[in-house]
Amino acid sequence: MSSGLRHNEEIESLEPPMQISKTDFIQFLHCPKSLWLLKHKPEAYPHGEFSDYAEKLAAEGYELEAYVRELIEAGVDAAQFSFQTVFQTERGLYAKTDIVRENEDGTFNLYEVKSSTRVKADAKHNQIKDACFQMIAAEEVRKDVRDVFIVHLNGDYVRDGEINPDALLTFAKVTSKVREIEAETRIEINKALDLLQTAEIDESCCSCLTLSKANHCDSFEHFNPGIPKPSIYNLPRISKAKLETFAGEGRFDLEDIGLDEVTEKQAYVLRSAQLREPVVDQGALARWFSRAKYPLYFLDYETYSSAIPIVDGARPQSPIPFQYSLHIKRTPDDLELVHVEYLAEEATLPRAMVDHMQRHIGPKGSVISWHASFENTQNKTMAKQFPDKAEFLQSLMDRTLDLEDLFAAPYVDIAFGGSTSIKKVLPVLAGDLDYAGMDVANGTDAMNAWKHLISMPDGDVRNRLKESMLEYCKLDTYAMVRIFEEMERV
User: Fold this and answer.
1) CA–CA gap between residue 78 and residue 295 (Å, rounded)
2) Strand partners, 5
3) Can you list the pairs that 442-450 forms with residues at least 24 positions away whose Cβ atoms lie under 8 Å?
4) Residues 418 and 235: beta-carbon distance below 8 Å
5) Which of 283, 290, 279 is nearest to 407 (CA)?
6) Separation between Cα atoms, residue 101 and residue 67, nearest integer Å
7) How far is CA 366 from CA 5, 292, 296, in A?
8) Percent of the chain whose predicted confidence (pLDDT) is above 70
9) Residues 148, 168 contacting (CB under 8 angstroms)
10) Where is average pLDDT lowest: 6-20, 71-85, 166-180, 443-457?
11) pLDDT at residue 10 above 90?
12) What is the mean pLDDT of residues 315-343?
């Protein structure tokens, strides 16, 4: 009798297994300790806010799923499909599969809906690994999975009138690719579950020590509090092999790194850190400025992209320019800049914007942008959309100088943090200009603002939103003017 009582007490004391979702599993693959911290010490985990861009992606995902559902429900075998099916296993796997089809022979097909224009299998967005996790969870609750599909956007689809779901969507069969990684994925799942059953871990470091700064987990500072600033992670494009070497030797401080151990571009940042001052190549600066021909046109675009094209003539995820700002400096001594701006107030391809630019950008003089490949990509796209404007747009491309190039080698300051982003450079060179506190303060803000603007009725709220959007884009090009002028004085 007493033995049976002890057995029952043991059963009652057993805690249910810690649940692991697909998102958790992907986080584990990136940084196992980060997932452990999230599950065991959520109060210590730097959760952060759900970003505006993440909200946009989530909303687009729901919109895309609605078109998938519409397509499936219009088919003759619609009754065989179910949506948002949950597979929850005894050992804690939790998978909510977008679509499940029960086949005539009793097997099942799984469908994962993705808002990309292709199947992604890179380390950061491994959709095959996602699907494999879903399949394993389904099979652990005794579902015989026959085929697995990734439903993604057709990148060649061009909207013409109402959305055509059949043309918009591509059903990519990935069964063989999923089965190829099944064994390794099962091993990884087992490791994840074992880790989550561990009550304590070494919290003095994490595996992100050998990853570049952009790939650090959210909890990097929790696990690696002793990393100096600046550090080896401020060296641009540093390889994993180099990071493994430096981290393995405990050399995180740039004072401990030799110039002969880094690439030429990294050496500029390293020298600046060690000298504690900017590193300037006067010859390279002079060569860049010699190419700048007046009048100068400082140009910046804002674009909107979405999974579902919002206007005729657009493709999925293809950027649509809807706004530009232009500061014109006519001579080297010109103290009165001319500012020109344009903001589309309805969803349409940017022909009117190109017409507006053509009236204000003359046939001579340099066009200056920051990360100019972005603007020129839009110019190429618009030239294809509007053949009669191709000559003008090609002229812009031919005359474009990239102001960001100055900070790749000619002028490098460790104060930029190893970055060449205008958001990093501007506070150092023109500290009186600041994006902080602006209602629209970055490209994602501008994208979201435009989406609201084109659907809002006229009124004070709409006018204030327009003003905020124009103010942000204007600052982008004025910031370029100020940085240009500061660099002229170096």
Assistant:
1) 63
2) none
3) 443/302, 443/303, 444/51, 444/52, 444/53, 444/56, 445/52, 445/472, 446/302, 446/323, 446/472, 446/473, 447/56, 447/302, 447/303, 447/304, 447/305, 448/52, 448/56, 450/302, 450/304, 450/322, 450/323, 450/344
4) yes
5) 279
6) 17
7) 86, 6, 5
8) 96
9) no
10) 6-20
11) no
12) 96
pLDDT greater at residue 56 or residue 311: 311
Please state whether 396 falls in left (phi above 0), alpha (psi between -120 and 50) or beta: alpha
pLDDT value at residue 13: 42
CA separation for the pair 238, 253 (Å, rounded): 14
Token pair listed for 30: 């990136």
262 and 236 in contact (C-beta within 8 Å)?
no
Question: What's the pLDDT score for residue 11?
Answer: 40
Rg (CA), the chain: 27
Residue 238 near residue 273 (C-beta atoms within 8 A): no
Q: What mean pLDDT is reported for the chain?
A: 94
What CA–CA distance (Å, rounded) separates 400 from 75? 51
The model's pTM is 0.91
Q: Which residues lie below 8 Å from residue 484, measured CB to CB, with a gap of 6+?
A: 296, 298, 329, 368, 403
| Unique residue bearing structure tokens 């430096």 | 246
Tell me the two tokens of residue 488. 């002229």
In angstroms, the Cα distances linking 481 to 335, 448, 490 are 11, 26, 15
- Least confident segment among 114-128, 156-170, 285-299, 349-363: 114-128
Residues 163 and 126: beta-carbon distance below 8 Å: no
Q: What percent of the chain has a predicted confidence (pLDDT) above 90? A: 91
